[in-house]
Design brief:
This protein has one domain. Helices cover 69% and strands 0% of the residues. It is built from 15 helices and no strands. The longest helix is centred in the N-terminal third of the chain and has 30 residues.
Length: 384
């Protein structure tokens, strides 16, 4: 049962959560690094090169589970927090760690991300001139204001704020909902996600891009957040997920591969069986998403992971990597664009270049500063 304000002894570190968080975080970096090299154009990206369907496949398959997994992790940690802290402590902690980074991130990173969109108007490295940078930056601000200011990649935090508030507001009602069977959770989740997908603009999940709440995606993601809250009880539901994880993955992985087939057919807008293809895309995609999320959670939870200082370091850095990586990976994209080299060379450079820059800035600008204190806790540098 989830209650508030009960003092409990410190809980031992759940190492499998660290692994889930880090693997999901790197998968998200992989998605962003792949986008300009896809065969299908991404309208919101600053540039699109002549790409390969290999990147489409990688992005599609990874996108089936990665953001949903983030919300399950967030719900799990929030459930633990609700069982150990009172309302005031929760509000203070979430305000510092979520609201402040969201507001600061939107003000700092979003105009930079939008600025990159103006770079396609210049040949070569012409966008690096002071006048071009100024014009692109102002154009980014204007574009943001015209579109109710995009949240960019920080939409995850934006929805998370609502999820925290809703869960606290209806905690007594939610606490009465008993979840014991992973199969029932799976069935309800698939049906709910299919309904949500039906009302979206695309055949795959729409990520919200502005401060306007998109209710189909909101409901879809909130379900996964609540799954995490229920898993935090560490009762029969968690045991059931652990026990069925192998079966979920054995079914979810091939379904996820199969789900891309109707996505490819969707390019033919005049197909005689377009409605059937759309329904197939929705059902296969939703089923594989729920199977993969529960399956991966159970698979990681069953493993005996060894704790280490390296793992903890990457876990501490993961929040900053999330905040900083998208503008950095876009920077690598626009810097590499004028160069005459294969996209199979540009991709790993942008992937590891952006990830490396995030880690370096975390070490020297975040970890031991007030920024690190806001995001996690200020760390003390070990004397050498």
């Amino acid at each position: 049962m989830i209650t508030l304000g009960i003092d409990k002894p410190p809980m031992r570190r759940l190492t499998y959560i660290d692994w889930l968080r880090n693997v999901s975080n790197f998968a998200r970096v992989f998605i962003h690094a792949s986008v300009p090299y896809m065969a299908s154009a991404a309208p919101m990206w600053p540039l699109n090169e002549e790409g390969s369907y290999l990147f489409d496949f990688g992005v599609f398959e990874t996108h089936l589970f990665v953001m949903e997994m983030f919300y399950v992790i967030a719900g799990f940690m929030f459930g633990l927090e609700m069982s150990r802290k009172n309302m005031r402590e929760i509000a203070q902690n979430r305000g510092q760690r979520i609201v402040v980074p969201f507001v600061a991130g939107v003000a700092l990173f979003t105009p930079i991300i939008l600025m990159y969109r103006g770079f396609k108007d210049y040949e070569g490295y012409g966008f690096l001139s002071p006048d071009a940078l100024k014009a692109s930056y102002l154009q980014g601000w204007e574009l943001g204001m015209e579109n109710f200011f995009p949240t960019g990649h920080l939409w995850f935090l934006y929805y998370l704020i609502f999820f925290y508030a809703l869960t606290l507001l209806f905690r007594k009602t939610l606490d009465k909902v008993k979840v014991g069977s992973a199969l029932k959770c799976l069935g309800v989740g698939i049906v709910l996600s299919c309904i949500c997908m039906h009302f979206m603009n695309r055949w795959i999940l729409d990520n919200p891009l502005t401060l306007t709440v998109e209710w189909p995606s909101f409901v879809h993601y909130y379900f996964f957040f609540l799954v995490g809250v229920k898993l935090s009880n560490r009762d029969a539901f968690l045991d059931n997920v652990l026990d069925r994880s192998k079966v979920f993955l054995r079914v979810g992985v091939p379904l996820g591969v199969l789900a891309i087939v109707p996505q490819l057919w969707s390019q033919d807008v005049g197909h005689i069986h377009r409605d059937v293809i759309q329904a197939s895309a929705i059902v296969l995609g939703c089923a594989s998403t729920h199977l993969l999320v529960l399956g991966l959670w159970g698979w990681f939870g069953r493993k005996k992971w060894k704790d280490s200082s390296t793992l903890r370091y990457f876990t501490d850095a993961s929040y900053w990597v999330y905040l900083s990586n998208m503008p950095l990976v876009m920077l690598w994209h626009v810097m590499l664009a004028p160069l005459d080299m294969s996209i199979y060379v540009k991709f790993p450079i942008s992937l590891f270049g952006a990830f490396g820059m995030s880690m370096l800035t975390y070490e020297y600008m975040v970890r031991y500063t007030w920024v690190g204190a806001v995001l996690n806790k200020r760390r003390v540098r070990n004397p050498t």
